[in-house]
Amino acid sequence: MPGHPSLAGRSFFLVLSSTGGMGGGGSALRVCADHRGGINWLSLSPDGQRLLTGSEDGTARLWSTADGQCCALLQGHESYVTFCQLEDEAAFTCSADCTIRKWDVLTGQCLQVFRGHTSIVNRILVANNQLFSSSYDRTARAWSVDKGQVSREFRGHRNCVLTLAYCAPWDLPGAPCVEEAVAGGLLVTGSTDGTAKVWQVASGCCHQTLRGHTGAVLCLVLDTPSHTAFTGSTDATIRAWDILSGEQLRVFQEHQGSVICLELANRHVYSGSADRTVKCWLADTGERVRTFAAHRHSVSALKYHAGTLFTGSGDARARAFDAQSGALQRVFRGHAFIINCIQVHGQVLYTASHDGALRLWDVRGLPRAPQRPAAPKRS
């Protein structure tokens, strides 16, 4: 049954600390500690007005970015929430209970339950009025957002599907030889079977299988203008692929541990790894141009914003680096466990941790990116 809406308690408190200079401490604005379990994901709405957190406690919460207050408690899942995505008018959550739920962002009411997966739902993605999902049941699925029904099933992976990316049809070439195949766009999935697959959304057929990794594919990002997918793996490499032809274009191989997260910005790929570093690469050549090496544990989250690279780590700290020079600008201390996700809105950094807290940090005073940043020098 859909969960009933309820207003969440406003149990946050103000934390005062000094704002340091280079490598100094960040200033915590608020700690929102309403969840009773670790926060697995944090999503910012397109209009920047709300945040959505999904937790181990089986609930999701909506927060206002204007004042940091919890607006609504989303209850109904029967197990922990693995991932969430917030749109302007609806929130979406997926869970280890094998379901996906759609929620009204104004009332907190559950509007739709998407049933069909037979194991943990790992990721969801809302795009082009469709909902895409990946699961431990070895499938990905496409759903009608309005009807809550499965429109396509993507079967072919030999193990669980972890990560998803979507390329809309208008971002793909219109040549006659590919026009029919890409009419509904392309879905890219990464799996623990060591492959990524490119699917034709309109037909459900596998368009390409991207083979080359020797370990699980943990993360992927798409560069839609060049039709290139970048995948990160437990084999410590990042690989670039042409999603139309399936050709492996480049291999990025200097990490000494699993590649956990990827961020693509300004023709640069940023990769966070279990080797405690972040590396910056030229997307078009695969050349490594910089290593960020201030972390004390695996790098678990990345976010590029206005010339600053924000990172989250298993050492329970977030960091801000000047993306161009590589200089450490600020360290944000206060969490007790791994930081699972980070977002930035305006002059506020949001960090979500396995300690169950959402923290808001003041990032005023960090360098702003020039309009046309110079290419970084090789370190």
TrEMBL record:
<dbReference type="InterPro" id="IPR019775">
    <property type="entry name" value="WD40_repeat_CS"/>
</dbReference>
<dbReference type="InterPro" id="IPR001680">
    <property type="entry name" value="WD40_rpt"/>
</dbReference>
<dbReference type="InterPro" id="IPR020472">
    <property type="entry name" value="WD40_PAC1"/>
</dbReference>
<feature type="repeat" description="WD">
    <location>
        <begin position="210"/>
        <end position="251"/>
    </location>
</feature>
<feature type="repeat" description="WD">
    <location>
        <begin position="32"/>
        <end position="73"/>
    </location>
</feature>
<feature type="repeat" description="WD">
    <location>
        <begin position="184"/>
        <end position="209"/>
    </location>
</feature>
<feature type="signal peptide">
    <location>
        <begin position="1"/>
        <end position="28"/>
    </location>
</feature>
<feature type="repeat" description="WD">
    <location>
        <begin position="74"/>
        <end position="113"/>
    </location>
</feature>
<dbReference type="InterPro" id="IPR036322">
    <property type="entry name" value="WD40_repeat_dom_sf"/>
</dbReference>
<dbReference type="InterPro" id="IPR044715">
    <property type="entry name" value="WDR86-like"/>
</dbReference>
<feature type="repeat" description="WD">
    <location>
        <begin position="252"/>
        <end position="291"/>
    </location>
</feature>
<keyword id="KW-0732">Signal</keyword>
<keyword id="KW-0853">WD repeat</keyword>
<dbReference type="InterPro" id="IPR015943">
    <property type="entry name" value="WD40/YVTN_repeat-like_dom_sf"/>
</dbReference>
<protein>
    <submittedName>
        <fullName>WD repeat domain 86</fullName>
    </submittedName>
</protein>
<keyword id="KW-0677">Repeat</keyword>
<feature type="repeat" description="WD">
    <location>
        <begin position="332"/>
        <end position="364"/>
    </location>
</feature>
<dbReference type="Pfam" id="PF00400">
    <property type="entry name" value="WD40"/>
</dbReference>
<feature type="repeat" description="WD">
    <location>
        <begin position="114"/>
        <end position="153"/>
    </location>
</feature>
